[in-house]
Amino acid sequence: MASRALAYCVRSVARSSARLNHGNVLTRSACAPVVSNQRLLSVISCSQRTRWTELVRISGPSVHLCRHYGDLPPLTLESIKERVMYVLKLYDKISPEKLQTSSHFMKDLGLDSLDQVEIIMAMEDEFGFEIPDAEAEKLMTPAEIVQYIADKKDVYE
Amino acid sequence: MAAVYLTHHQKVLRLYKKSLRHIESWCIFRDKYRFYACLLRARFDENKHEKDMVKATIMLKAGEEEFWANQHPQPYLFPDSPGGTSYERYECYKVPEWCLDHWHPSEKAMYPDYFAKREQWKKLRVQSWDRE
Fold it and tell me: Which HAMAP family does this chain map to (chain A) (predicted)?
């Protein structure tokens, strides 16, 4: 988009310079939609008749065309693990000292199946997508949760 | 799950999760939701140790009816879940992975690590396919 605006400005400068030069072939070819901005600008700055060349002084090769889309930062296995452990530490029925990635909710931490449902719901809220019940009842350790989320979100496969 | 029929345990857990989500839809402020969630948890906990299955199924049925009566008309659904806004939105753009085999070698050379592992992955799949 920036390149189109730039090309439009260049073309308007070229058109005004063409009116003054009365059919300068170079500036007419500059009106063609070619995305070689550096060449166009050097052509226009060569013509000394127009006053506008001093205004159109953009440094040549720094016009990199790249698009920015709005999205969340990409997930990594590390970041998923960090977030999962953070949420688990905030849960009041788990003591943060005993918590590790391989600690089983029922056997090691002594939690209930209702607690496990609540933990899975907290994970759903954290990551923003739903974990269906059939798969949620099988996730019993933080490592399994991290693995499941990585599978769903395509993180390093 | 292996069997099509749900066990009583699974049904109770699903009712719990559904009712928590609908309470969350009703009580939008987090502290109010937390309060009612704790009340619901206490109700589930006091009947947790019921050994009589007949009574337990009667209580479950009563719970399901109460859920149906108190459900939210437009519960909060996650975008990717069925009924959500973004459900199956990008399905039409997902290309099946056998198309990767039809890439031109110059394109495949752009991702050498992946295509090196891909051969091993396909061999693994051939071996483990019979086991499954």
Answer: Acyl_carrier
